[in-house]
Design brief:
The complex is a heterodimer of chains A (about 350) and B (about 500). Chain A is mostly helical and about 350 residues long. Chain A has 14 helices and 6 strands. Classes of the chains: A mainly alpha (about 350), B alpha/beta (about 500). Chains A and B meet through helix 8, helix 9 and helix 10 of A and helix 2 of B. The complex binds adenosine-5'-triphosphate and magnesium ion.
């Protein structure tokens, strides 16, 4: 075990643990809830559908955490953007595409604010996030304190078009001998596009590598001739835009907005990143690891809801425990490695 | 020769500290120029001002090939203007691979504009092989030794192929072999016309590679000299502002060693730690000064660390004052009256945001436990005492330690361990990065401690320094303890022979 830890990177080891955990949990679900259709492949796909927004937001969180920062405002941003979407489309009669554009522009503007504060004014990301959190939640209530929903033709096309996955191997044959293929929504496609683009950006662009360098050691990055301020600024700008996009995708699943929406979502995103191998200290992380983190969280929720009688809060408690476990795991691995180096 | 860099009338103040005042510096094509001065003289500050890490208040900087005055606002800009730097604190990103550290910020790209990892790894391998550095380039830098890290930082700076190369104490963690490699490289670059600024506290190195010497003292320019016109004694005098013989005898003449009547303080029997040091026997007496000598990686630090419990021993026995002990954590060692100044000061050393006073008293406080607080007044007395003994240059005892020059930070850490007043003290490279004057002070201090009945284990890459201070030498090779030299036999020849040694182990 020790040998394995010293040979593997911390991140690889964490991801390995997560994969094992995920498989065990999912297999357990398949055995215990076989009668309730847990084995149906569509259940698995539904995990993606109901978490597409979170996947995007967690990927962005991963990027911010790699740079050594954090964005705790994402939950409130989701609430605000969902509310904006509903209000713009339903009350102000703005076309869906324009409403989405407005939301993304809002995200960019917030990103610029956060970027300036963190990168140029050296304010703690946590504090900046706190201000964004209160602002966004407050704004949501200012727009509307009630519960709005969104029902619009174009929006519904985006939100509810079923995309069949025509792979025979995944299909289920029903009583009449017809093949039923599992399906996905466009939101999942968007989420995967974002993941792939972010993966390429983080691994194959100068900007992406600079993010890792800064997270590893900001002073060194500066002395090596990287533009630390600009990179950090761009990280938060991009984060603002991606979180807004993720919020729109989130809205496609909920089709509604209310003030208390997505409360604590920031913790889900951070937990997903950490469970997926992102270091809380910065400098280490990978968006596909984070995807795994989101899926782990989603599986826990699914298990709790299939159980039926448990309060859905139990899912939160289990995720929190898991997060604590992974944080401890990270620090233990780091220690073992340090020992091995001596 | 053509001047490629001129700095004139440079002024730089930190709150309460005049770091540079009216300093001139000139670098010419194909010149290796030593920048010398005591700890805190302003060498690193001059470099930081030049390369945009720090701003300066007034002065004029010109670089050959650039119209008008040059003010670099960041290291990035300095690089663009042809200045490549290895700073005193090793500046690499621990979470990235060796190859990536070499190329970050200037990565080769593929036809699609994406980063070309294959080329990066191939080029990195080539660059490091050329320098005779044997390391897996896909390994993270955090998993490399300090010496390798220093070589990587140098390789990076060199590969940027600027007109001006700055090396701020690049040799502090290197052994003779690596230093020689670096010098060969520097001479090669020199012949290509590159100008090199070289900061070091090793005087021999200055005389080995440099053409010119600029001396700073207390932030002021003492002068620029050619190496020939400034012999060693005079250089030391210029740096310190007074006559000083840094090679004078400091311990009493060698005597025949007779250990039979001495009290054994620590005794190790076949103590070993797998992968770090092979089982060894050693008896350490009260009042001993033991030198641990060997090449880097020979296990000389590990031997001491195994006794101290940082490196967990997995076989053998250890006796302290006749009692068998199992040390699992350094704090236990401290409570047994031991102290260890680690080699890697960056990771295990200073706590950057705490004051000099806090950094000095912290180990003593840890030894006493949290319930026996050291009063503020006492803390101040302790801090002042070591600031004075070790000549730590600081504006105030409550100045954050990160604001001190590199050498002065090291002195503070040394003070920390001296303050715990251990019976048994391990000093791993205590004089690295410390100026000649204080170096001699530290050597004297070691001899004095021994005279008072304390025991010191002294580890240093500088053989001369060990010869001057040690009463017994333990020789290490390939993680084996291969021999001991009594005081009468300590000489450069004997040590070198023992280090090189035969093929078989004891
Ligand atoms: N950031 C800072 N804030 C305040 N004072 C500083 C700062 N950096 C350096 N100084 C002070 O400036 C003076 C010159 O420091 P510098 O680091 O240039 O010395 P140095 O010649 O490089 O010494 P060494 O040989 O120890 O590296 C010192 O007195 C130091 O305390
Ligand atoms: Mg310095």
């Amino acid at each position: 075990m020790k040998n394995l830890i010293t040979k593997m990177s911390t991140q690889a080891f964490v991801i390995m643990v997560t994969i094992i955990l995920f498989i065990i949990m999912y297999a357990a679900g398949c055995v215990v809830y076989a009668d309730k259709n847990f084995t149906n492949i569509q259940v698995f796909f539904n995990l993606f559908i109901s978490n597409a927004g979170l996947i995007i937001i967690s990927a962005s969180m991963t990027m911010v955490m790699i740079s050594g920062g954090i964005d705790i405002s994402v939950g409130s941003q989701v609430a605000l953007v969902c509310m904006m979407m509903c209000d713009l489309v339903m009350n102000k009669h703005v076309p869906t595409a324009a409403a989405i554009a407005i939301c993304i522009v809002y995200g960019i503007v917030y990103g610029i604010y956060a970027g300036v504060m963190v990168a140029y004014l050296n304010i703690q990301p946590f504090i900046v996030g706190l201000s964004g959190m209160f602002f966004a939640r407050g704004m949501t209530a200012v727009i509307n304190t009630g519960m709005l929903s969104i029902a619009d033709k174009t929006f519904d096309v985006l939100a509810k078009t079923k995309i069949m996955i025509p792979i025979d191997f995944l299909a289920k044959v029903n009583k009449r001998g017809m093949k039923i293929y599992p399906n996905l929504y466009p939101s999942v496609i968007i989420a995967f596009l974002v993941l792939v683009i972010m993966f390429v950006m983080l691994k194959y662009t100068k900007f992406g590598r600079a993010i890792y360098a800064i997270g590893g050691n900001e002073q060194s990055a500066l002395l090596m001739g990287l533009n630390v301020k600009k990179t950090k600024f761009l990280v938060y700008l991009l984060d603002g835009a991606i979180v807004a996009l993720g919020s729109v995708v989130y809205c496609m699943n909920t089709c509604g907005g209310f003030v208390a929406q997505a409360q604590g979502l920031e913790m889900d995103a951070i937990a997903a990143a950490v469970i997926g191998g992102t270091s809380l200290m910065g400098g280490v992380g990978n968006v596909f690891g984070t995807l795994l983190g989101v899926m782990t969280k989603a599986t826990i929720e699914a298990l709790v809801s299939f159980q039926g009688s448990l309060s859905s809060w139990w899912a939160k408690i289990i995720i929190a425990t898991l997060l604590a476990f992974f944080i401890i795991l990270q620090s233990i691995i780091t220690r073992i490695k340090a020992k091995a180096r001596d | 020769m053509k001047e490629i860099l001129t700095m004139r009338h440079i002024d730089k103040n930190f709150p309460g500290v005049r770091a540079l005042s009216n300093v001139d510096f000139t670098l010419r094509e194909g010149e290796i120029h030593a920048l010398m001065g005591e700890n805190g003289a302003g060498k690193s500050t001059l470099i930081k001002v030049l390369t945009g890490v720090e701003e300066f208040e007034s002065g004029d900087i010109r670089v050959d090939g650039i119209e008008g005055p040059v003010i670099n606002r960041s290291p990035e800009e300095a690089q663009k203007n042809g200045i490549s730097t290895v700073y005193q604190e090793v500046n690499l990103c621990p979470n990235l691979t060796v190859a990536e550290n070499l190329y970050i910020g200037r990565q080769p790209r593929t036809a699609f504009g994406t980063i070309d990892w294959k080329t990066i790894n191939e080029n990195a391998k080539k660059v490091l092989t050329d320098l005779d550095i044997d390391v897996d380039v896909t390994k993270n830098v955090e998993d490399c030794s300090v010496a390798i890290q220093q070589m990587i930082a140098i390789a990076r700076a060199v590969d940027i192929s600027a007109k001006i190369l700055i090396l701020d104490e690049p040799t502090s963690s290197l052994d003779d072999n690596e230093v020689e490699k670096l010098f060969t490289l520097m001479r090669k670059l020199q012949s290509k016309g590159m100008g090199i600024i070289f900061v070091t506290h090793f005087l021999e190195q200055v005389y080995e590679v440099c053409d010119k010497i600029t001396v700073l003292r207390n932030g002021e320019l003492v002068g620029e000299f050619t190496v020939e016109e400034l012999p060693r004694v005079q250089l030391v005098a210029k740096m310190m502002g007074k006559d000083f013989d840094d090679l004078a005898e400091i311990k009493s003449a060698a005597t025949e060693t007779d250990n039979s009547h001495k009290e054994v303080l620590i005794s190790a029997k076949q103590l070993g730690s797998r992968g770090a040091v092979h089982p060894f026997d050693v008896d350490i007496y009260k009042g001993d000064v033991i030198g641990l000598s060997g090449l880097l990686g020979s296990g000389r630090s590990e031997l001491a660390r195994t006794i101290y419990g940082i490196q967990n021993p997995d076989e053998g026995e250890l006796f302290v004052k006749g009692k068998k002990v199992h040390i699992k954590q350094p704090i236990q060692a401290m409570k047994l009256g031991m102290g260890l100044l680690p080699e890697d000061r960056k990771d295990e050393g200073i706590i950057a945001d705490l004051s000099v006073r806090e950094n000095i008293i912290i180990a003593l406080q840890a030894k006493r436990g949290v319930f026996r607080l050291i009063s503020r007044k006492q803390q101040e007395e302790f801090a002042d005492k070591y600031i004075d003994i070790l000549q730590i240059k600081t504006a105030h005892r409550d100045t954050p330690i990160k604001q001190l020059s590199g050498g002065n930070q090291q002195k503070a850490i040394l003070g920390r361990w001296l303050l715990t007043d251990p019976d048994f003290l391990v000093l791993d490279e205590p004089t690295r990065g410390i100026d000649v004057g204080t170096k001699t002070e530290i050597q004297k201090l070691v001899v004095k401690l021994a005279d008072e009945g304390k025991t010191v284990v002294f580890i240093s890459s500088e053989i001369e320094e060990m010869i001057r201070t040690c009463r017994r030498m333990i020789i290490m090779r390939d993680t084996y303890k291969v021999g001991e030299l009594p005081e009468m036999e300590i000489s450069k020849d004997n040590i070198m022979k023992a280090i090189a040694g035969g093929a078989e182990h004891e």
